[in-house]
Amino acid sequence: MKYCTHIDSPDVIVIGSGIMSANLGAMLKRLEPSLSLQVYEVTEELAQESSNGWNNAGTGHAGICELSYTPNREADGTVNVSKAIQIFEQFEHSKQFWSYAVASGMVDNPKEFINPVPHISFVHGQEMVDFLQARYRGMAAHHFFREMEYVTDRATIGQWAPLLVENRADVPISATKMDNGTDVNFGAISRKLVHWLSQQDRCGVASNHRVIDLEKTNSGWEVLVKDLATGETRTNRAKFVFVGAGGGSLTLLQKSGIPEAKGLGGFPIGGQWLVCENSAIVERHQAKVYGQPLPAAPTMAVPHLDTRILDGKKTLLFGPFAAWTTKFLNKKGSFTDLPFSIRPDNILTLTNIGIHNLDLIRYLVQQGTQSMQDRMEVLRVFYPAAKADDWKLIDAGIRVQAIKETDGKAGIVHYGTEVITNADHTISALLGASPGASVSVNIVLDVIKICFPHLLDRPEGKTRMKEMLPTYDEDIQLPGKAERFREISDKTDKILQLS
């Protein structure tokens, strides 16, 4: 569906229609119904880049199965699970807001964007088996993860996920499982929320419109927008601009000229999936299975075998496989995006990072040139009986990892999503990678706290926020909040048809 409605001089301009922009726009409009808002999207349809269901893993990241959130054992053999606990709570915020959107009639049919899928961590080799057991002990001690199961028994793992044990050699294996994991179509919920916005008073949505320039004014921002269908340009003004343009955010930040963007660079990484649509295989697997890291792979490339529900159909995805690219966007990007993003203020940082990450660059080139047989060998680490005829390779989305001067010799790719906000809080831009989509509600809540504090200072604002996010001002990580967490979580899951 195409959109072409315009609001002149709105309070807020939102660039991009993905999950971050959709959540922020909808939350702001609910907090202050009189707010005027304009959304600009560069593609003809909404949420077609990183939020598109085929362009990401669709994992409702809750720290349950992703070993990258708990990568190391301490000297005493324990595993620090604090990051997993934090991610879990943040994803609960996302579920709370989406359940509010369903209950209030903003969106319908939750099964079109979220479905229950067990989350499993699976490892092999005695060292990793010992690690997973230590991780389980740390996780199960917290009330978020009390339902987690841990087994080394091959027959039980085979009941959980038959593909994992079929034709597997006699090596030590173990797995953890929680049944309350989710598969999320972030594109679907984004489109539903933006469509709701388009129907609200003093809200406009224009797709196939590219923001080509930003200029600071005394009262906010002047935004130059091009209609890609007609070639016409128009200027719009707003008090606040949110840049949620995925890979396009860095370029727009640089054009804004704000001091906070100085020295920022971006490193794009393409993605690919192996997809199986053979129903005989698809129906035998009902889980998202995350494994142990592969040698030389970046954190975002930890392999996983995923049940996906996309466009009403169940399928299997395996990956991701990384690929070298210089584009920042999949559909509307250009191979000149990376070279044109190099500026005098970031060239030294980019050069320094590149020198210290040659192994990763070689890995990306190798990933992009490997054969189907090479990819099948990686899949067989998870599914030993996999046959090449049952799988095909598809392109996924592009992630642009933000690089800052403070990264120094750090790896190019790391977990985390960052929001860059200028000093007078009139512009915010989203940069970063996983687990961004899953914790997007928590991220935009921080934007509101920083840039729209007056909306939360008023009694009616606090009341409205508590309706949207019942635990937004509570620390449900605390042991004394276990019953409160369970109460809200059960209610949320019922509304979203997850329980």
Descriptive report:
The longest helix is centred in the N-terminal third of the chain and has 22 residues, at 82-103. By secondary structure, the protein is of the alpha/beta class. The chain is globular, with a radius of gyration of 22 Å. The protein is built from 15 helices and 19 strands. Strands 5-6-4-14-15-16-13-17 form an 8-stranded mixed sheet, with helices on both faces. Strands 8-2-1-12-19-18 form a 6-stranded mixed sheet, sandwiched between helices. The protein has a 3-stranded antiparallel sheet with strand order 9-10-11. A hairpin with a 2-residue loop joins strand 15 (304-310) and strand 16 (313-324).
In brief:
With 499 residues, this protein is α/β, with parallel strands linked by helices.
What distance separates the N and C termini?
A: 32 Å
Shape: globular
Low-pLDDT runs of 5+ residues are none
As a whole number of angstroms, the C-alpha radius of gyration is 22 Å
- Average pLDDT, rounded to a whole number, is 91
Helices and strands: which structural class? Answer: alpha/beta
| Strand count | 19
Strand order, sheet with most strands: 5-6-4-14-15-16-13-17
Keywords, please?
alpha/beta, 8-stranded mixed sheet, 6-stranded mixed sheet, 19 strands
Give the secondary structure arrangement, pairings included.
Elements (H helix, E strand, L loop, with lengths): L11 E4 L3 H13 L5 E4 L41 H22 L10 E3 L2 E6 L1 H15 L8 E3 L2 H7 L12 E6 L3 E3 L1 H13 L4 E4 L2 E9 L2 E8 L5 E6 L1 E4 L5 H8 L8 E12 L2 H4 L5 E3 L13 E7 L2 E12 L12 H4 L6 H9 L2 H12 L2 H11 L9 E12 L13 E5 L5 E6 L7 H12 L1 H5 L1 H10 L13 H14 L4
